[in-house]
Specification:
With 215 residues, this protein is mostly helical. The protein has 2 domains: 1-140, no CATH class; 153-210. The chain is 60% helix and 0% strand. The chain has 9 helices and no strands. It has helices at residues 20-30, 33-38, 44-52, 56-62, 85-100, 106-115, 131-140, 142-173, 183-210. Helix 4 packs across helix 6 (106-115) and helix 6 (106-115) packs across helix 7. The protein is elongated and about 85 Å long.
Length: 215
């Protein structure tokens, strides 16, 4: 795998002098999933850093590039009912060796499993990590994972807020029009319209900053 410290990003990407998380963030923003996978940025320790910066749709699309994506033998990732622990541990090691080791998107697979876990009794091998490893990571990284889930849902919520603000501006701009409306109502409407437009500009600026555009 190419190390993040090697400075793979092209012009405009994060500098080698930046912290690893900034480099990972720049990689996740700058390159499509297929390129990240092909260049080895979604596996190993560096892969975990990059996957942590990706949103749910990107992580889900990465799974289509996994070594297991073409298999129908999904049962090999799950413990069978009443299966002895020793037998299951041996079988899951075979699964990890066959599918997870060397998988170009193992880190994305694990990240998605940590953010949106199955019920404890339904846990399975994900991204080369056994059930107990996933539980430990989920506990250790609880705050980060919670923030990532909020970030996943953020775009839809931000878009809804911007649309609501835009509708408010349009509604106010069409209200209290004409000299037949008493001046005090027109003045009040003008103040409300200016305030609504200011809120819309603020939401738009926040969105542009969050997505890497200048406000």
């Amino acid at each position: 795998m190419t190390s993040m410290a090697a400075g793979r990003p092209a012009q405009g990407a994060a500098s080698q002098n930046h912290p690893a998380d900034e480099i990972a963030r720049e990689l996740a923003r700058s390159y499509p999933v297929v390129v990240l996978a092909a260049d080895g940025y979604l596996t190993g320790p560096d892969g975990r850093s990059v996957a942590a910066q990706m949103r749910e749709p990107e992580l889900a699309s990465a799974l289509r590039l996994g070594r297991c994506s073409g298999t129908n033998d999904t049962d090999c990732f799950y413990r069978r009912e009443d299966e002895e622990t020793e037998e299951w541990h041996g079988r899951r090691e075979q699964t990890i060796a066959q599918y997870c080791a060397g998988c170009p998107v193992a880190a994305a697979c694990l990240e998605l499993a940590l953010r949106y876990p199955e019920e404890p009794q339904d846990l399975a091998v994900r991204g080369g990590a056994a059930e107990e490893d996933q539980l430990a990571l989920r506990s250790e990284e609880a705050d980060r994972l919670a923030a990532a889930v909020i970030r996943d849902h953020g775009p839809d919520e931000w878009r809804a807020r911007r649309l609501d603000a835009a509708r408010e501006v349009q509604t106010l701009a069409r209200t209290c029009i004409g000299f037949s409306v008493p001046a005090k109502y027109r003045e009040r409407n003008h103040v409300d319209t200016v305030a609504a437009a200011r809120r819309l500009r603020k939401l738009t600026a926040e969105h542009r900053r969050a997505t890497g555009w200048a406000a």
